[in-house]
Amino acid sequence: MRFRMEDHRQSDVREAIDRFLIGGGRVPVSFGPYLIFPGFCDVHVHFREPGYFYKETMETGTRAAVRGGYTAVCTMPNLDPVADSPETLEPQLKAIRETACIPVYPYGAITRGEKGEKLSEMGELAPLVCAFSDDGRGVQGEEMMRAAMREAKSLGKLIAAHCEDNTLLKGGYIHDGAYAKAHGHRGICSESEWGQIARDLRLARETGCKYHVCHISTKESVALIRKAKAEGVDVTCETGPHYLTLCDGDLQEEGRFKMNPPLRSREDREALIQGLLDGTIDMIATDHAPHSAEEKSKGLEGSLMGVVGLETAFPVLYTHLVKPGILTLERLCELLCWNPRKRFNIESDPGCTVFEVETPYTIDPAEFASKGRSTPFAGDEVYGRCLLTVYEGNAVYEKK
Length: 400
Fold this sequence. Notes:
Elements: H1 7-22, E1 29-31, E2 34-38, E3 40-45, H2 58-67, E4 70-75, H3 86-99, E5 104-106, H4 122-125, H5 142-155, E6 158-161, E7 174-175, H6 178-183, E8 187-188, H7 191-207, E9 210-213, H8 219-230, E10 235-239, H9 241-245, H10 266-278, E11 283-284, H11 299-302, H12 313-322, H13 329-343, E12 352-356, E13 361-362, E14 381-382, E15 385-391, E16 394-398
Parallel strand pairs: 3-4, 4-5, 6-9, 7-8, 9-10, 10-11
Antiparallel strand pairs: 1-2, 2-12, 12-15, 13-14, 15-16
Helix pairs in contact: 5-7, 7-8, 8-10
């Protein structure tokens, strides 16, 4: 394995990687200022190809991933065309084959066009996709979700649900909390998320489907999933770095703080952290969702939903959860690497990634490999700069 670091640092990093590999390559290894992890796996990213190349491409998305320490990602199907058949999935598969620098595992849509009216070609898609999701919109009809779960069960595939009850949104765009009330914004109530989770858990119990909940953000969601797990429902869930480290008290009047679901209350954030600690929350996924600068320049009300996260996830989590002693490195490794790989049957070798964790630095979106620049963490001082990401013995990213 060759990389281009200065001679003294190259020797130290190489020794650190050797120690990691000798230890089996499964748990983090600390060596001087360096931390070595197995490569991360993000089961929830939007790379926008095909259809929205100006926001992101398969090439820029995977370059952003390796710059953040990821060696496998799962891409959502809300593209143009929506990946609801082998034919509509093929443009994405072609981009993966030709331009991705790490393995990319696409989702198939649950319903045709993500319209919630008719099931996608799930049987034909099953061998080609990691799971099924209508991410970006919830499946509104109970009968449609029941049919999808039964089909997914017969195919041995996972349903990964964006849970959002449209009847409860009422034009909201941030959390229906203190900030919204104080600044005259329309709020999104927590029940719009947890109400649909409750429905889906009942259906998962009924059908026996493997069920995964995307980007949970409320304390009620944590409680419902905790209870369902105790009852034997085959359910897992994810949350994002921003929901674990920010709340609606941190909002500013800028589009970089707007995502779906929104940043919730301090109590919700605390419940999410407790869910990490007790095993209710199985993994952390970024919901990396790039948009153009113009699309994110219209404040909280007018900007599109979504922020980027692949290049900031580890430093944000390390700085705010590991360094204060809230989360162990071993648990973070489970959440970022092994749990997502196990649940989504990601069998590729994770390789490894190296971070320097003693020197603080400031998050600067201008340095991102992603086309997206909108992050609530811009300007924050953090620890954990990625120096090197290795996949199949090759340095797929190296800090210059």
